[in-house]
């Protein structure tokens, strides 16, 4: 019996030494002191190694998709087209996509900031890898750069809010945020990853015990994010409010508020001057423009001015409120058109197009599996948040925790408006989850029995299984056996997700076999070869397919899913939904020479379901109007293609 007890004690001691001690410092053992030194002085190196290993794993698992250049979203494809156009001589400030809606072009509200690393990687590697090889290299590596910033910002936040040793647990938890990590996968070259990376730095800056350094971090990160886009504008506003609140509660933070205000005003002006496109120099509402410079420059200078007030906290609070109301009033008076949705789309455009965009739908409207993937981690974070706030209520860290709470709760609430806010909600749930697990590890370290240690270990594993969606998904699969619903890996695509590498590898099917989902092969390079072989043409095709078409071929299209081009988007919808006569008028007005469809793509189901007798529905049934003639394609091609015949009465049609 004595030997058994000794064996159990030895096992418990070994478990603590290997699993618990590296994260805690409750004793003065040699191992604990060593980990203290490592976590204090080498946490950056460990985080960097963690990022490199994660990046290597992602590159390996996506190697086939990289080879086939299977860009997974419409924005990724258009971003590649924009970068290639820039490398081939298009102007720095010219962000018009001239191969959409020619000859006018499509107005794109992005900036060149995200294009820089992609273009640099392509240009550097092209002499060694060739044209396509350099594009594969650039599009694979570029999304992993903001991933490194994300790991660093997340680790920094948890070190400041939870404890020095929490950084490793924090980044392990980040791997549970599948929707967030989906924004950083190889080939995911759109700007969402950079926005999330800068958001992590904003949270880390407001948690910085050095208020001056934190203020500058928040201001710089806010400016860089605004230069890219307005996606995290609500969180930037909350972070600005928290910077002001730090000063209201403690007058010693006046200098930090000045740093924040002046830095935000100066850097936003510089960022606008360097990166604003020709279109964004006008008072537009959906990008950093003179409209939002009113808030960043005016608001920044105003908070820097009121920071000179030497009075009690009540007077400082009143001054802050008055300053906020003054800037808000100036904004509302100067730009009343920007008080609503920044996209400013018409009701018709919303009904026909935006209402079908997945990322613009509320989370509760999505498939049950998508809901589970999105909300599992935030729900665990929500449960952990309030005990963490209570535990730190008298701590100097409470300001950082309150800032995190406000922004996290806002992101979580906004998922009920649009799904696109859920990656931020997952990211912001990580620090609270990290606090819970570190707390449980401390309790585990105090256990004297093997059963107690095992109990806490099982609790921690269960939390991780729920946060990573493993257990919730298993429950859903069990309760929905035989009940199949559409489920896409990427719930944030503006349109159809592009195929995996398997669709590319299985493109050349034998003649006696029919592929189960031929539409999945439409965006693939092998399928597009026959389209590329046709002389350059202006093509009427699906809105969600147009970015892939112009990125992978030399052809032109009418519209992609970009709200500034409302008329062109409506023309495509009116053509496919309307009568053949209406479609012909639109086609000839846009000088369209080819009509290209891919039956079975998600967008086609919209036209079939909502316009059962429309132009597309008739084409799908084989009812082709006389002004179109079929063009030959390879037998295995998933496309259907028609040439537009010359108009017999062109003069009268032009007059009409």
UniProtKB/TrEMBL annotation:
Annotated Basic and acidic residues bias: 501-521
UniProt entry tagged with the keyword DNA repair: no
Keyword annotations: Membrane, Transmembrane, Transmembrane helix
Keyword Magnesium: no
Region spans: Disordered: 496-521
Transmembrane segments annotated in the record for this chain: 42-60, 135-156, 168-189, 215-238, 259-279, 291-307, 314-335, 370-389, 401-418, 424-441, 453-473
Name of the protein in its database record: AcrB/AcrD/AcrF family protein
Organism name: Zymomonas mobilis subsp. mobilis (strain ATCC 10988 / DSM 424 / LMG 404 / NCIMB 8938 / NRRL B-806 / ZM1)
Organism lineage string: Bacteria, Pseudomonadati, Pseudomonadota, Alphaproteobacteria, Sphingomonadales
